[in-house]
Design a protein that fits this description.
The complex is a heterodimer. A 4-stranded antiparallel beta sheet of chain A has the order 1-2-3-4. Chain A has 7 helices and 4 strands, in the order E-E-E-E-H-H-H-H-H-H-H. The longest helix of chain A is centred in the middle third of the chain and has 17 residues. Chain A is α+β, with helices and mostly antiparallel strands. Chain A has a domain of 104 residues. In chain B, 24% of the residues lie in helices and 17% in strands. In chain B, helix 1 runs parallel beside helix 11. The two termini of chain B are 26 Å apart. Classes of the chains: A alpha+beta, B alpha/beta. The interface between A and B is large, with 41 and 47 residues. The complex binds flavin-adenine dinucleotide and iron/sulfur cluster. Iron/sulfur cluster (SF4) binds next to loops of chain B. The site of iron/sulfur cluster has 14 residues of chain B, from loops.
Amino acid sequence: MKGKSINRRQFLQTSGYAVAGAAAIGSGAVVIAADGAWALSTTTLDQHAAMTLLRVSRMLFPHDFLGDQYYAKVVEALDAQAANDPAMATQIRDGIAALDSTRDGIAFLDLSDGYAEDAIGSIEGTPFFGTMRGATINNLYGNPLVWRFFGYEGSSWQQGGYLHRGFDDAGWLDAIIESEA
Amino acid sequence: MAKFDLNDDTVVVVIGSGAGGGTLSNELAQKGINVVCLEAGKRLTLDDIENDWGTMFGKLSWTDKRIGTGALNPDLPLWVCKTVGGTTVHWAGAALRFQDHEWKAKSTYGDIPGANLLDWPVDANEMERFYSMAEDKMGVTGRQGIPQLPGNNNFKAMLAGAQRLGYTKVHTGNMAINSEPRGGRPSCQQIGFCMAGCKIGAKWSALYTEIPAAEATGHFELRPESMVLKINHDSSGKVTSVVYVDKEGNTHEQKARIIAVAGNSVETPRLLLNSASSMFPDGMANSSGQVGKNFMRHMTGTVYAILPQPVHFDRGTQMAGIVQDEAHHDDSRGFVAGYEMETLPGFGLAGVASNTIAGAWGREYAKDIEMYDHFAGMWLVGEDLPQEQNGVTLHDSQKDQYGMPVPVVHFEDHPNDTAMRNHAFKRGSAIYEAIGATKTFELPPFPSTHNMGTCRMSADAKDGVCNPTGQTHDIPNLYISDGSQFTTSAAENPTLTIVSLAIRQAEKIAERMNAGEI
Ligand SMILES: Cc1cc2nc3c(=O)[nH]c(=O)nc-3n(C[C@H](O)[C@H](O)[C@H](O)COP(=O)(O)OP(=O)(O)OC[C@H]3O[C@@H](n4cnc5c(N)ncnc54)[C@H](O)[C@@H]3O)c2cc1C
Ligand code: SF4
């Protein structure tokens, strides 16, 4: 994470998040969970952008058992991409603008869940949607810290593979196989 | 380890070090024939292998620009390797023989509109000895007295469902993966990342079998990071040398007595087409016009299912499980030829999220992904029909980093491929539904892994590019030594046949060299 000093009294309270940092568009933001359990910092995306992407990412792949800190990784990855690639920065800015203009100018962050889903539906098939889906898959499901929630076990050779760790332990299938044999 | 001079025109130059090129190199070197193998990719060791899909894709895959058209992924039409050992570093190890009738596709299936079918100019009888040699070399389970692998959970799901449907040809496959220590390599530890490279070398790969064995003979020099751009010939029409670029970007010319091309089915025709000259205006060895045509990649598809209880389908050998009851030819099913069903897990959590339903999102899909450890999966792989318009051409303006024209790869299903896939999706799903699957998913083909046919073998020089030994019809000292030779695809994963053909080719090349014919 990019080190950015935060003045706790400057936090903006938005729907459960404390948002801090320079207010100027395009110069980054720091978002801190209301309970202080995690923080998200960006260098290029402003806080409105960061919060919007956070919500999109969660709505694309909502898992109630995953805290926002995991989705925050998606936003940080997008921020890094935008910082390195002006075309990506433009795509993200335009994508957010599109999301903010689906319901008579009500910002995406203020939309009800149903309206917000419609808004995402309306951008399906655009490059920005592809960017968001790809970034969420890579940085949410690709994050080793979330694997255990899904039962994906990751690298195995260090532990000698699964030869003695259950490669064939599905007893319920053995029962079917025996009953059919 | 030998070293040969660039001007040494007695060597055999082999282009590519994968299933075809790696095997041919070693077989020739074992016979005392001097070989220089030029390989575009880097040389890795087992230390470089990690159990991480994204990392290994990056280390191993061919990502130089290619353009896919038709049904292919536009940016990544193929999934193949650019590394010493070629795609045998990535491969899953399924090593099946063709069925006898598959050598005779045209006489068995008849005239099919839109298909450019031929019989192979070799048959099952002729191949028997070479199949046995390949199985022995590769340590294929269930063959040559080698025990089969144990079944993992994903196999058990396949077996349980298949039994309920009355299927009987269900087993843990014929795998080029050690079920017991063999050839100085250990037995499989059920690591579950076969297709990211086997960390312990239990799976056969040219990288740590053929290549070091060839080096030990003193008749073999491997030059990694050497990309061949062009083949030269003399005024008699025989090939004389290759032009290649090394890792520093320097261009060299290596002379040769014989040149064998084994760059996988896109790079092989690409190189021949890029070697056009005033004598060969349509590309080298292309008097038939068949170079780069008839590209086949198998009828493929994947079925995933969510089962009632946990499976952990990524534990253990990925492809050690097969149902062969649909592999035969029976046109009462609405298509000719047949298909295999083979176990296939996902490629990690991110892979499953990305591929299970392309483009899907939202709460319902997220709930499916939450069932990750209940997933079972299989790959469907069947014979696809050669079609002349499926193939490889050179882009007229775009160049790759070496300055070589970018290949454009075109593929569209034949109606027979579609009918077969439709049948296979239904049967594959039925297997899992028979054991209580709550949901099944039909995944379209991945970027092509089995690539065949673009310089095919034919009895008659006007129908294909090379003769039954892989020698090109037009140029006696130019050979095709990889899956490009395939006349038809058969239903089986191609590599055992590629290796068998390479062993046979080495024998024939040695005979002809000894007889002074080439
Ligand atoms: C994920 C995956 C799983 C697979 N599983 C199976 C399986 O279970 N069973 C099976 O039978 N098959 C499987 N395959 C397919 C199998 O890997 C290929 O059929 C086989 O490796 C092809 O052999 P080849 O010699 O034609 O080409 P490759 O093995 O791809 O070798 C070609 C080599 O040539 C090099 N090259 C290309 N052009 C040039 C050039 N101009 N100059 C220098 N070098 C060049 C490449 O870098 C490469 O190393 C799988 C493939 C993949 C990707
Ligand atoms: S499962 Fe076996 S073959 Fe596959 S990577 Fe592991 S040890 Fe190698």
